[in-house]
Amino acid sequence: MDLLLGIDVGTSGTKTALFGTDGRAVASHTEEYPMYQPNNGWAEQDASDWWDAVVAGVGSVLAKSGAKASQIRGVGLSGQMHGLVMLDRDGRLLRRSIIWCDQRTSAEIEQINRLVGEKRIIEITANPAMTGFTAAKILWVQNNEPEIYDKCAHILLPKDYIRYKLTGEFATEVSDAAGMQLMDIPGRDWSGEVLSKLSIDRALLGSMHESQDLTGTVHARAAEETGLCAGTPVAGGAGDNPAAAVGAGVVSEGVAFTTIGSSAVIYAVSDKVTIDLMGRVHTLCASAPGKWTVMSCTQGAGLSLQWLRNTCCAPEVEQARAQSADPYYLMDKMAESVPIGAGKLLYLPYLMGERSPHPDPFCRGVFFGLSAIHGRAEMIRAVLEGVAYSQRECVDVFREMGVKINDMLACGGGARSAIWRQMLADLYGCPVSLTEADEGPALGVALLAGVCAGVYGSVGQACEAAVRKGGALQPDKGRTSAYEPYYGLYKRLYRDLKEDFELLARMP
User: What are phi and psi of 361, to 5 degrees?
Assistant: First the structure.
């Protein structure tokens, strides 16, 4: 049986999954690793942890499945977007990776706007200068660690570091590179103008490919370390969200998906470049050739629920351990016992600053209305609702831009929560379906690897062969009406607190 391997370098761990050509998972393994926060608003990871996780993951899925490495027709790579990996001339890591949710680069945003121009950076890269994007991180190293920057010979994204470790090639592809803020998005290639104005040498960056292109083959040393066969094709792959789109079958206009992982993303495909000049959502290149995406990103979505679990829900964690259950399942049941509005408690999910629909590195998480009557159940419900409100706010921007959303798919760990999916359906006002596969980006890049290897004729054909949808949850007009006043207050709270967030950030 022919198999396809998908590797997704996530924030909390790397998922390695083996699939049949019908898209069904044969085996999967997730290897976790830490995130480092040396200062408030900073976020880093050690890229060597990612490679160790890949080695462990490949070994695990081959052992679990009993498959032979020779059955694997191709490898696809996905990963957290916007991260900065820096290597010296010998391919050695120069520092920990500054990852997507890091917010240290506010001064560099001003620098980009001064050097390129606020309007011009949007015209070229389809997005305003963003603290989370890679370009600002590169400038931060230029400004603050010049001795490291002087030694830098290669700049890679997280998944592209794994490509280098597998193949020895320095390469990337359009969907992930589009989030670096160094690309001409309409032209689907590096922007000479941006690179020149930011003093970034083009030679530091990898070669550019489409997502289904061949970017190298597994070399002998990587084969020895991982157990893969030397010569196995490695496809361009995709950033985590474009990969999840392929895995959900979202490769044409009208269909969108919401994924709730550490962050939450809404992703819709467009046949043309559509830009929000206010920078509330992102326009990037899609993994399907000749298509673009409009994408939002809420930084602290599933992360908010994880934080609440770790900080306040020790009894539920202990009960889950005793029952061999998932603590999130018990937390869902608690939330279901609380009416809409969480007892007049609202939550703003800005634990790591925000990107969509508020590009604001200074905002922080807020419980509003907290009183002595509230317990863990109300707090859980408020977090779920707050994340759902943030997604509705992004959908409102999509519709304002003329982006069609008639059907919504849900994926990611948070999509397993039926109460969360129902909140989304009620707030979006459209059906929300669950994808049958639970492997998300790993499936998407496995399908891209299948196109690369000739298993499928195109990305669309791969999705037709391998992607299946589950049942849809329908919106309820009564619940939608009940949410509206809370949603209106939720939106107002950010506007009221915006200046105070910045004041707090500047306090010693």
Answer: -75, -15
Tokens for 23, please give them.
Answer: 């898209």
The mean predicted confidence, pLDDT, of the chain is: 95
- pLDDT tens digit sequence for 249-285: 999 888 899 989 889 999 999 888 888 988 899 899 9
The residue with tokens 């922007």 is: 191
Helices (H), 248-371: 302-312, 314-323, 327-336
Helices within 25-183 (DSSP H only):
47-65, 106-115, 118-125, 134-144, 146-151, 158-167, 174-177
Q: Is residue 240 annotated as a catalytic residue, yes or no? A: yes
Which of 91-105, 148-162, 178-192, 397-411 has the lowest average pLDDT? 397-411
Dist. CA 166–CA 174, nearest whole Å = 20
As a whole number of angstroms, the distance between CA 461 and CA 382 comes to 41
Q: Which of 240, 276, 360, 426 is catalytic?
A: 240
- DSSP letters along 104-142, please? --HHHHHHHHHHT-HHHHHHHHSS---TTSHHHHHHHHH
* CB environment 155-194: b (16+ within 10 A), e (fewer): bbbbbbbbbbbbbebbbbbbbbbbbbbbbbbbebebbeeb
Overall average pLDDT of the 10-16 stretch: 96
Q: Binning pLDDT at 50, 70 and 90, where does residue 471 land?
A: confident
Tell me the residue type at 110: E
